[in-house]
Design a protein that fits this description.
With 205 residues, the protein is of the alpha+beta class. The protein has helices at residues 6-25, 62-66, 80-89, 157-165, 177-186, 191-199, and strands at residues 40-41, 50-57, 72-78, 97-110, 113-129, 138-143, 148-149. The protein is built from 6 helices and 7 strands; from the N terminus they run αββαβαββββααα.
């Protein structure tokens, strides 16, 4: 039937090689993984996920500075599948993971200017949406150099703050410039955020 199958075989091998290479270069997102005692496993390759935003925090309170406080950056990443779903729906699907990493800040001189740059990692927090596992649907986990972390108690202030001020599904989408417009177009902004935005005084220069 086939007089010479070698060209076809070579074509198939080349195609498979290309597909495998693409798969290897695509950040994986398998959802949250837990230990038998309910601790969340650190998603080690989160820096290959979608970058959402960075916040710069200036620590100017004397009491905190005396206790070793310092300026810091907070960088936010989200798993790729959740990001794709948000673009389509304007909200987060179940199993979403948002990683917030804290890094120290350092002022450096750059010719005639100064700049604040990021330093070493200080800590990690993961915000997980898992409706089957958590009564409030979302939970926080704080990592401090370990590969697993226990759930932050629901009495912690982060829960009530996110619930009261989060623009979409208790998350601070108002600070993610690539997503806020999506949420507005999909009409998924929370009622609490809408009230805050309407009552906020305009910024004048």
């Amino acid at each position: 039937m086939f007089t010479n199958s070698k060209p076809i075989l070579l074509l198939v091998v080349a195609l498979l090689s290309t597909l495998l290479q693409k798969a290897a270069n695509t950040p994986s997102s398998v959802g949250p993984e837990y230990t038998v005692d309910g601790q969340l496993k650190l998603p080690e390759h989160y820096r290959e996920w979608v970058y959402l935003s960075s916040d710069f925090h200036t620590n100017s309170k004397p009491a905190e500075m005396e206790n070793g406080g310092h300026d810091s950056f907070l960088n936010v990443f989200v798993d790729p599948e959740a990001y794709k779903a948000f673009l389509q729906t304007g909200t987060w699907p179940d199993k979403t993971m948002l990683v917030v990493e804290g890094r120290g800040a350092q002022s450096v001189s750059m010719n005639t200017q100064t700049a604040d740059v990021q330093e070493s990692l200080k800590g990690l927090a993961v915000h997980v949406k898992d409706k089957a596992r958590f009564p409030g649907r979302w939970a926080f986990f704080g990592f401090h150099g370990d590969k697993t972390a226990k759930m932050v108690p629901v009495t912690a202030g982060c829960y009530s703050c996110h619930a009261a001020h989060g623009a979409v599904d208790t998350t601070f989408v108002q600070y993610y410039p690539t997503l806020l417009g999506i949420a507005k177009s999909k009409d998924t902004l929370s009622a609490a955020y809408r009230r805050e935005a309407e009552s906020a005084a305009p910024i004048t220069k």
